[in-house]
Structure prediction request, 698 residues.
Amino acid sequence: MENTQIKNKILEILKQDKRLWNEEQTELNQTLLLDLVEQIDEAVIGLLLQEESLRDKFFVKIKDAYVFKMNNFKFFMEENKINNSYTAYKNRIGLTDGKRFLKDTNDVVLDFPYKDCVLEGGQSSEEGMDTYFEYEEEKTKTVKGEKITEEAGYKEKQTKRKEIFFNQVLAHDEIDRLFDEKALVNWKRYTKDGEVSVGNIKRDEDGTIKENLIIKGNNLLVLHGLKSQFARKVKLIYIDPPFNTGKDEFKYNDSFNHSTWLTFMKNRLEVAKELLRDNGVIVVHVGNEEASYMQVLLDEIFRRDNYLNHITMTTNAPSGFKATSAKIFSTANHIYIYGKDSLKNKLNKIYIQKDYDSAYKFYLINPEDDFSKWKYKSLIEVLSENEGYKSADDFKKDFSKTVINEKLSEFAFKNKNQVFRTAAVGGGALIKRNKTVLESKKNKGVVMQHPNEDIENFYILNGEMIVFWGNNFKNIDGNYVPAQALTDVWTDISFTGIANEGSVTLKNGKKPELLLKRIIELSTEENDLVLDYHLGSGTTCAVAHKMGRQYIGIEQLDYDNNDSVIRLQNVINKDTTGISKAVNWQGGGDFIYFELAKWNEEAKEEINTCKSLDDLVKLFDTLYEKYFLNYNLKIKEFKDKVINEDEFKALSLEEQKRMFLTMLDLNQMYVQKSEMEDKRFGISEEDQKSTNQFYNEK
Prediction:
């Protein structure tokens, strides 16, 4: 068969794999094809194998098996390149890792950085001190008999780092059992009566788990473990990932560069998408550093036509910060909202409270009379009379503009159904009522209504429609207040004064409960399932709990007394902070906590806690006797030679730790469910039973 015929046959066969083609199925992505071939992609190899002519050309039969001649195939494709091959691929705007488009890579970033320090600052000394900024309210103290007031604002502080994350990247051909279901341990149920045994895991009629869950472990692996139970079950995913500020002084995290951050996000977003319902929503909260790239990444994963909104919000005022940059100080955060299928998704209508609008400057004197007899005055005149003044001018002389506006606002609030403005009539409304509008312009001061008017309370004055202030009022959290429809610029939610929400503290990472309340209201109904896989101090789950939503929270880091478990216990015990008053929170409910069973993860933690090379050397025997090490590690050579070389000793302690970490088999960071009965892992029968119950197995 001639090369042209073989090439055409390859194209014909590969049409069945939509990954390799543009949307019109006209151009082959040859770069991606060769990548998949190198990865021995089963789908691609299977298609080539099923066609006899291609099987004879690119496979050799050894006994009962066919062996793929990869190099022959790659050479053929390079020598017979498709003309104008995949122009859309070459010219498309997308994200790259420096070599390939990110969309076409299968690499995995396993770890993620220490959240607090990524946001503000990083490693500042050999002793492990981290710089961060914490907001402090204005306070007064007495020094030598004199009162000194300290201005409110963000103050620079330092703290000891507790965890270190080397962001290791696994190439596709290194991934073995990484995403297999894992053993789950340390099961606990928390209720108003405290910690109790888990008992049976509640499920609905369809078999879906109906429990609130807090899961400790690597979020990528947990997300993959959730697929069998929660695929297409989640209504809202909210994440507040590391912002990747790119601080060079963050030495523990210097490998978490732009492309690694994008790969890290891509890995998790792809599996998160599988968990969303068809009408589900994902909300991603990022800073300026990666905002533009995040939107492109979300376009690629969730498709551009599923974009719903980009929210811009301000976090804090610049007061209190040191002027350390020539750049304009940034307080902007960005929230991207995508639907899994925008045709099936509709965000709920949300209203927010607004201030008095001075355009509402008229007061209806006799609302009980027929509209044709209505009389009105300016609002300032009526207020002046009520305050005992003969004229508005006299009233204005005694008060500042600020006080007058406050009084007008209060008066308008109390008399909202008599306070009004006029607005132009336009569009179809004007066409229908044009005759009445023209007549009204000739009869100044007379209220009219169009003959046979079919819209209630549509009145016309001086050629314009009457709009009452009371029409703006909505019930928000039990209060009847003036309101306006929510826009995509949020400036009404403060990030200051939230330090005590939930009675836990998370420096530089905590989000206001009001923010999560709004996002949950926008996208869910009661009992819907909410997921946050960058949980931090637990704001998302705390708010979901108070609002009657089911939730799953995933977190790997330790926050001691400030973590989500402590916070949710406070919620159950009638926490009064945050949104508690707004939703009339009375306490109650429960949640289940469990962890991925660590294995090589324990080894990593032991390596990270070493204080010197001597500690690392002493640990080495334990590493190769107890844990799973990389198959290509030459243990004896490393132990007898490498760690004793002057060159190795000259490395910094962190570089030495990094070398030790590369010994670990990253596919074995946690115990596989299929191996949890092995006694060396020490997993109790009770935890094994709960694990099987979670995966719905007997």
Observations:
- The first helix runs from residue 3 to 14.
- Confidence is low (pLDDT under 50) at residues 84-91, 114-135, 158-163, 247-255.
- The chain has four domains: 3-92, 169-350+490-596, 362-478, 600-669.
